[in-house]
8-oxo-dGTP diphosphatase (Herbaspirillum rhizosphaerae), 143 residues
Amino acid sequence: MTVASETMAAPIAAPIDVAVGILMKPNGDVLLGQRPEGKPYAGYWEFPGGKVEGGESILDALKREFLEELGIEVISAEPWCGVQHVYPHAHVRLHFYISREWRGEPQSLEGQAFAWQGSVEVEPLLPATIPLIEWIDKLRLPL
């Protein structure tokens, strides 16, 4: 007979799928955005993206988010990696795509700051973003 302990930890919520895009210029610079006021981790820097809606593919979610947040049309993007992270407010499964082809210039449509970065100098960085910075350095194309 098995007896359940009364001190069992609460189950972790199912992860929320998030599409995240890394816009990379030919010189290797990448775009980071600052989370706006009113959102968890406001003021922290991250790669742009957002939650995947029901019935939406990751790539479709990425294209929608970039159009809504930055006013740009992603022409092509390649899946790069996936990372799960448990924040105090949410358990997220981040699907990272790299895009080197888009139409338009990024605009601040949600009032967020953004910055093109070669060696990343903005801070603070969102915790799930930190390990990716080193990985991205290995992907940069030579000048």
Observations:
- Confidence is low (pLDDT under 50) at residues 1-10.
- Strands lie at 16-23, 30-34, 45-46, 49-51, 73-86, 91-103, 114-117.
- The longest strand covers residues 73-86.
